């Protein structure tokens, strides 16, 4: 297992993070790109594909995995104490980007609301629905993720304590 905290400064290597890693540090960029892609995916895949339940279930699952994957990629850069404000802010920004994209699609006549084309009267309701569904998904996922990280840290902490004791015995 790699060591995340080297014991000697000679072990530190300056490595420039990859492009996606640098991108994942920005809450605004991650949430905006996620919102635009989720809305475009929803409109063009769900409304123009087959209407059987298997296809709909599969495409909704793919969309949810993408959304929660982007949230995870962003939150993984920060300590657990910041999850409390980053997850709701990510959700709000993602929904704002999604509704901006929705407004553009309504103006172009491409946005769907169920089986009919969406109109400007539908926009606020669609926004509230997106905020409820996506926002709740993101906040609940962040809580589950925080719990998993905390459990993993405690398990690794116990493992490290055991190794530390063994090392002390070997030195004596």
Question: What does the model show?
Answer:
There is one protein chain. This protein has 172 residues and is mainly α. It has one domain (26-171). The protein is 74% helix and 2% strand. The chain contains 5 helices and 2 strands; from the N terminus they run ααααββα. Strands 1-2 form a two-stranded antiparallel sheet. Helix 4 packs antiparallel against helix 5 (120-171). It is elongated and about 60 Å long. The model is unreliable at 167-172 (pLDDT under 50).
Structural topology:
Blueprint: H1 19-24, H2 27-46, H3 53-75, H4 83-108, E1 112-113, E2 116-117, H5 120-171
Low-pLDDT regions:
167-172
> Approximately what portion of the residues adopt beta-strand conformation?
under 5%
Radius of gyration: 21 Å
Number of helices: 5
**What is the succession of H and E elements?**
HHHHEEH
Lateral arrangement of strands in the main beta sheet: 1-2
Major β-sheet profile: 2 strands, antiparallel
Structural category is: mainly alpha
Averaging pLDDT over every residue, what do you get? 84
Oligomer: single chain
Give the count of structural domains. Answer: 1
Form type: elongated
Percent helix range: over 70%
Distance between the termini: 25 Å
Number of strands: 2
């Amino acid at each position: 297992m790699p060591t995340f905290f080297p014991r000697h400064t000679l072990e530190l290597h300056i490595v420039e993070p990859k492009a996606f890693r640098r991108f994942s540090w920005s809450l605004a960029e991650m949430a905006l790109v996620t919102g635009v892609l989720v809305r475009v995916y929803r409109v063009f895949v769900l409304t123009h594909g087959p209407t059987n339940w298997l296809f709909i279930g599969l495409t909704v699952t793919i969309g949810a995995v993408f959304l929660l994957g982007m949230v995870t990629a962003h939150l993984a850069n920060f300590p657990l104490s910041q999850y409390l404000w980053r997850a709701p802010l990510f959700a709000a920004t993602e929904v704002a980007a999604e509704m901006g994209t929705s407004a553009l699609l309504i103006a172009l006549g491409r946005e769907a609301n169920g089986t009919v084309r969406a109109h400007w009267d539908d926009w606020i309701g669609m926004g509230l629905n997106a905020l409820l569904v996506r926002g709740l998904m993101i906040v609940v996922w962040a809580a589950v993720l925080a719990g998993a990280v905390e459990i993993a840290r405690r398990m690794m902490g116990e493992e490290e304590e055991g190794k530390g004791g063994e090392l002390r015995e070997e030195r004596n």
